[in-house]
Amino acid sequence: MGKLFAVVLVVIALASAYPIATRMYVMPEDISTHGHAIDDQLSDTMKEAGFSFLGAQLVLAFFVFKFAQRKEGAKLTHLPGGAKLVVTVAFIIVGAEVFALGVLGQKAWANVYFTPPRPDALQIQAQAGQFAFYFRYAGVDGKFGAIHPDKIDEGNQNFFGLDPANDIESRDDIVSGELAIPVNREIHLLMHAKDVGHSFYVRELRIQQDFVPGLDLSVHFTATKIGRYEIVCTQLCGLGHYNMKAYLNVMAQDDFEKWMKQKASEL
Amino acid sequence: MSSTIYQPVRTPPPALRGSPLPAARVAKVLSGAEGASQSGIWVGIFAITMSFAALTSALFVRQGSGADWTHIALPSVLYANTLALLLSSATLQMARRAITAVPPVEPRAVPVGLGWLMATLGLGSVFVAGQFEAWRQLAAQGLYLATNPNSSFYYVLTAMHGLHVLAGIVALALVIGRIAASRATSRKSTFEATATYWHFMGILWIYLLLVLRTKL
Amino acid sequence: MEETSAQQAHVHAPPEGFLRKYVFSLDHKVIGKQYYALGLLAVCMGMVLSWLMRFHLVWPTTRIPGLELLSKAGAPGGIITPEYYLSLLTMHGTLMVFFVLTNAPFAAFGNYFLPIQIGAEDMAFPRFNMMSFWTTLVAFLVLILAFVIPDGPPISGWTSYAPLSAVGKDAGPGMGWGMNLWAISIAIFCIGSLLGALNFIATTLDLRAKGMTLMRMPICTWAWFITSCIALLAFAVLLPACILLILDRMAGTSFFIPSGLVISDRLQPHSGGSPLLWQHLFWFFGHPEVYIAILPSMGIVSHILINSMRKPLLSARVIIYSMMSIGFLSWMVWGHHMFVSGMNPFSSLLFSFPTLTITIPATIMTLIWLGSLYGANIRINSASLFALGFISMFVSGGVSGFFLAQPSIDIVLHATYFVVGHFHMVMGVASIFGVFAGTYFWFGKMTGRMMNETLGQLHFWLTFIGTYCIFMPFHYLGLVGNIRRYSAFVNDFTGPLMPLHKFITIAALGTGAAQLIFIFNLIYSRYKGAPAPENPWSGTTLEWSIPSPPPWNNFGGKHPIVYHDPYQYDVKGSKGDYIMQDSPEPSAG
Predict the structure, then answer these.
(1) Check: complex ipTM more than 0.85
(2) d(CA C110, CA C388)
(3) Number of domains comprising chain B
(4) pLDDT, mean of residues B14-24
(5) Is the same domain home to A141 and A50?
(6) Between residues 48 and 67 of chain B, which touch chain C (CB distance below 8 Å)?
(7) 0.90 exceeded by pTM
(8) Which of C57, C101, C86, C261 has its CA nearest to residue C157?
(9) Does one domain contain both A140 and A257?
(10) Do the Cβ atoms of B36 and C281 come within 8 Å?
(11) Residue B180 is part of a domain; what is its CATH number?
């Protein structure tokens, strides 16, 4: 039975590692400017994790194979080096990993969160509500009109609760169900939660950030590849959470301007 | 190889049952039930402290999260209540001194210290009644539980503390009942634990009063 | 043998009558078994919920016959609605984390064996102990009442984030009285756990037998002791959090709810509160809670491994100090559940360092276990197989934590199945393996009859292979970006993942069925198992020095005297290959 345990464990360990090693399940292609640091970090961590995982499982299997159910009265021996060796090895190996991944890896985090958006970044406001995302562009005046929660009227497409009659700035605001952005232009996404907690996640952009009611949060990013990418909600927000999604539509600059003109004319 | 220490068997001391113990010996065998009561009450105090620490940090965070932090005037009866609670600790100490003066294994006809204990109970009850009065005074100003965050924390903190004081009052009443029935000797540990707890209620109240005064 | 009046003073009288013996018992052994039974009931319910969830994910339009009887609104025609899926998910998590993982390894085995292993007749406060069980049972009943009410159970997950959980019934189905019951249940559970923790700590500090120094306590006793210290402080924080949540829901306060929220077309009458405050309070409890879930199993597994290997660990003290450091570090890492929550990103970095640092004691423990196997003669039986399996599972689950500890990687893995795979492997499998191992090891002592070995080993193989088949693929799903807490997969990128999901569901149903072997074994062995000797495993600790099952006062009125460290195996010059803790026989110098 001991030997069987060892054999089964080796099979399980190798079978578990196989899909990772052969890259059967991977993130889609990174279309952001900051994402490569995250991908590198993930890749480095995967190597260390793989080494630790396989190492530990194979050692466990080997020791059980060799030292289980030996004959009665077999001489018991001890690991040379004993506990001291184990503790030293653990401190050194893990300490080094912690240092490498923690300290050196904070750059990837810093890229996303510690750099402010550029002054000329395109500001777009995203609103998350049960169970859809809406996006607002400031229009020609470059200003967002005020949000009046009591004026929200989904039936009449007033998703943000704008009051164009009294707020001049909201008259040219463009509201869209998809997030259209120009390629290679930094976007500053202002995030507003209408009701409960939600989250904004685009896999290809390597961006995930919660919407927190009552907090003015934002993220900034630059998309480098034209295409349509799915935005999904990742913070449990109610029964429609699974279906709460939208599309990030990255366009060429000219196409984006055409899109904006088209939207403005519909106002 | 793990280190092993071989302790030679010591001849156990003679059986203690049946012979009166001098006070010093009693102290020595206090690990066991008596020690457990003391450990237990300190553990409980630790947990209660942690709960109030959580509420305090909630207060700080809440203050920063909304623009609606409006100061409330604390009801004036609060200071009288504080005096009552602190006095009750003093009377409890008098009771403690009286009770520990009695040799533990001899029941006495007239329970000593009972008077001081009843005073403690009375003052504790005055405190609780006073806290209700404080709530009434706040309500008279139009400040209820949900009126604003300051009033919310006032009610929550004082209610939580008050509930724990009530538990202490129940314990005190039980101790008084036992002493009145001259069973103090077998439950000295309960009395000690109750006393420690009661003093903690006073210290906790001082802390809360400071928080209420400076933050609310 | 020495009797002290103090130790006599607290002991309760021998129980008389059915109610006192089996229902409202003051005996820690009965209370331990009551906790175990509650944990067993909760795990069966939780497992059934998971089958329903997995079934719905891959066969959403297939009717589950009879389910409409459980909930007419939630499963009309036997088809689970999206909101009912979330209800099942919420109750699954709540039952498993609170009523299984806090109950079984900690409250059940700890209650039963801690007093015995330290040489005491009972816990320090037997009446508080009884109260702690009954309080926990009341909490359980309040929770499952949510299944019965028309509105159904809440849909906000076991984490109950505000404002979804705080605004009341506008937030969705089940968020009226269902959510109220959840909050009340968990508040009551906190009280029960606090009473239990208090008992464990006072008992360990004060009721140890003569010669039982702290360092002579078995490793599992240490694990229960450290766990109870953590539980004392963690539940002391969750209780006020739940109270504040109940006040927001029922009294109109705004601790967690900001202004301007429009839910179900209604402007909510709250303002100024902070949803992040709930997250901070909850995770300040929640992270230590997961160590409450794993530490006792680490202790039980260490205890069983040593006995099975017939030699001590490389160093029991290092294991104990590692458990203490894990307990200590566990207070500093809660923010790693909130990396992308909107809290200050600098805080995220601060939290990631202690999180990564916890890898050190965890690695030390794993390497000590592995290194101790070297040169041993491992006896293989159901208990030791689950103990060895624990090591494998702990490695698998721990390694994925390494990814999630880094905020930058968490950006892409947060809220995906990668996280679900991580915590299921450590909590849902490793911790449960500790419970299984402890059951097979101690069943004979607790009931007087041994469990069936053949069934036990069959149970092990099916569960070991089955749980790997279920939870390892979760990590692959997460790496692709499959989001969690979805009642259906309707994203562009999840279509190709459905075959893997089907594989997982079939593995889950099969592994679940295999647990019937365990339940059958429990019941069968209780009545027909081979009679258990006093020391079937040739163990050294005090539980093996008393009859199986033990008398009501454990040591029959005697007070044991302890002469040795707990794991005197392979001692040169001793009679067998072991020396019991209470044997005056000298150990090797």
Answers:
(1) yes
(2) 21
(3) 1
(4) 33
(5) no
(6) 48, 50-51, 53-55, 57-58, 61-62, 64-67
(7) yes
(8) C86
(9) yes
(10) no
(11) 1.20.120.80
